[in-house]
C-alpha cells in the first residue's frame, strides 16, 4: 500500500519544496506534491514553483518570522540548484 511518504518521495521536489507549495496554496503536503510534480512538467511551471517559494519568503519576512524565511531561502537555493530552468528569464 502506498503511504504519504511514498507519494512525497515520488516527486522531483524535496520535502522542503513541497512544504513551501503546501504553505503557499494552503493545501496538504500530498496535494502539494501532486501539484508540484505537475507544475515541474508544464511550460513555465518551474518558474511558478520558484515564485511560490519567493512569495512564502516575503510573507515570512512581513510576519517577522526570520527563521522560517531562512529555511525557505535554503529551500529556494536548493530548488534553483536542482532546477536551473526555474530561474526567471528562462524559456
How would you describe what is shown here?
The protein is mostly helical. The chain has one domain. It has helices spanning 4-9, 15-25, 29-39, 45-63, 66-82. α2 (15-25) packs across α3.
The total count of strands amounts to 0
> What's the rounded overall pLDDT mean?
93
Report, as a whole number of angstroms, the end-to-end distance. Answer: 39 Å
Number of domains: 1
Helix percent reads: over 70%
Biggest pleated-sheet summary: none
Radius of gyration: 13 Å
Quick one: overall form?
Answer: globular
Question: How would you describe this structure in keywords?
Answer:
0% strand; 91 residues; globular; mainly alpha
Chart the SSEs and their pairings:
Blueprint: H1 4-9, H2 15-25, H3 29-39, H4 45-63, H5 66-82
Helix pairs in contact: 2-3, 2-4, 4-5
Summarize the structure.
With 91 residues, the chain is mainly alpha-helical. It is built from five helices and no strands.
Amino acid at each position: 500500500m502506498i503511504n504519504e511518504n511514498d507519494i512525497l518521495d515520488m516527486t522531483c521536489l524535496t520535502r522542503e519544496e513541497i512544504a513551501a507549495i503546501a504553505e503557499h496554496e494552503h493545501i496538504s503536503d500530498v496535494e502539494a506534491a501532486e501539484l508540484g510534480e505537475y507544475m515541474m512538467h508544464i511550460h513555465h511551471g518551474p518558474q511558478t514553483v520558484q515564485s511560490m517559494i519567493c512569495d512564502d519568503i516575503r510573507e515570512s519576512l512581513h510576519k517577522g518570522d526570520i527563521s522560517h524565511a531562512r529555511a525557505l531561502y535554503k529551500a529556494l537555493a536548493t530548488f534553483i540548484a536542482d532546477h536551473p530552468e526555474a530561474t526567471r528569464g528562462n524559456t
